[in-house]
Specification:
Residues 1-35, 47-82, 171-195 are annotated as: Disordered. Pfam families: DciA. Among the domains are: 2-53; 98-171, GMP Synthetase, Chain A, domain 3. It contains eight helices and three strands. The chain has helices spanning 2-11, 34-53, 84-95, 98-108, 110-114, 116-121, 139-147, 149-160, and strands at residues 122-128, 131-136, 167-171. The protein is mostly helical.
Length: 195
């Protein structure tokens, strides 16, 4: 009889504050032995199922309940997911790839940089030391582009940044060159090559 009363008092203890929604009914006091044990087990399993349905509270700072140093309060921090473009910009800046990217933009997006009309009649050839060499399709277009050089430099600086292209070297269509490399020996050049 004494053991039944102690088991009844153990069953009727209040449940923790975490489980408040729809507590299962407690076993009736007239149960004894295996029936009482089965009723207590069923009640405990029902509480466990209710607890599992509740949203979990996330621990911060690895299990100790404290936040990491320097990461306190709401708001963005470096651990949040980032946009791919922003991550790429930071990577390019940290590695020093901004200038090569700007130089590649001059060649890759020439029509966007100078406009479709000018791009239809000219093409960039090389960029070396801030000097962009542009080849026009005719000598008339080369003359026009020389007159528009200041405007072209402003357009290029606005699109790819300042100090990427500092000077334009504009020429018309070139005849085939027989020279190889940046330095050559003066001489008579090729003769009777075509037969």
């Amino acid at each position: 009889m004494g053991s039944e009363k102690s088991s009844e008092s153990a069953v009727q203890k209040p449940v923790s504050d975490e489980v408040k929604a729809e507590e299962p009914a407690l076993p009736s006091p007239d149960l004894a032995g295996p029936e009482l044990a089965r009723a207590v087990l069923d009640a405990a399993l029902a509480r466990r199922r209710e607890y599992a349905k509740q949203p979990k509270r996330r621990k911060t700072g690895g299990g100790s309940g404290r936040r990491l140093r320097g990461y306190s309060g709401p708001g963005p921090d470096p651990r949040d997911p980032q946009l791919f473009g922003d991550m790429l910009q930071r990577l390019m800046k940290s590695r020093g790839w901004e200038k090569p990217k700007a130089e590649a933009t001059v060649f890759g997006s020439w029509s966007k940089v100078v406009g479709p009309d000018i791009a239809a009649h000219s093409r960039p050839v090389k960029l070396e030391g801030g000097v962009l060499t542009v080849e026009a399709e005719s000598t008339a277009w080369a003359t026009q582009l020389r007159m528009l050089a200041a405007t072209l430099l402003r357009k290029i600086a606005g699109e790819v940044g300042h100090n990427v292209v500092t000077k334009l070297n504009i020429h018309g269509p070139a005849a085939p060159s027989w020279s190889r490399g940046p330095r050559r020996v003066q001489g008579r050049g090729p003769r009777d090559t075509y037969g």
